[in-house]
Amino acid sequence: MKKLIFLIALVAFSACKNDTNKNGSSSESEENVVNVYTHRHYAADQLLFKQFEETTRIKVNVINASADELIQKMTIEGAQSPADVLITVDAGRLTRAKDQNLLQPIESDVLNRIIAPHLKDSENYWFGLTKRARIIAYSKERVDSTDLSTYEDLASDKWKGKILIRSSENIYNQSLLASLIVHNGEKEATKWTEAMVKNMARSPKGNDRDQVKAVVGGEGDIAVVNTYYIGNMLNSTNPEEVKAAEAVGIFFPNQEGRGAHINVSGAGVARYAPNKENAIKFIEFLISKEAQEVFANSNYEYPVNPIVKPAPLLQQWGEFKEDSLTLSKLGEFNKKAVLTFDEAGWK
Amino acid sequence: MKQAGSKNIFSFKYRLKRLKRDSNKWAIFTLLILFLIVLPIVSIGVKLFSGPGETWSHIVDNLLLDYLGNSLFLIFACGAIVLLFGVSTAWLVARYEFPLRKQMEWLLILPLAIPGYIVAYAYAGIFDYGGTLQLILEAVGLEFVRFDIMNKSGLAFVLGISLFPYVYVSSRAFFLNQANSLMEASEMLGVGPVKTFFKLMLPMARPAIVAGLILVLMEVLNDYGAAKYFGVNTFTTGIFRSWFSLEEPETAVYLSALLIVIVFTLILLEKFQRRKLRFNSNRDNNMRIYRKKVSPKNQLIIFLAVLLPVVLGFLLPVAQLIYWATLTYENVFNLSFLTISVQSFGIALLTAFVSVIIAVILIFFSKWSRLGFVKNIAKLGVLGYAIPGAVVAIGIMIPTIFIDRWLIDVMDYLFNVDLGLILTGTLVALIYAYVVRFLAVAYNPIESTALKVSNAIPDSSNMLGVGNLRTFFKIEFPLIRTGIASAFILVFIDVLKELPLTLILKPFHVNTLAVKAYEYASDEMVMEAAIPSLFIIVTVMLPVIFLNRLLIK
Question: Which residues hold Fe cation (chain A) (predicted)?
Answer without folding.
Answer: 41, 228-229
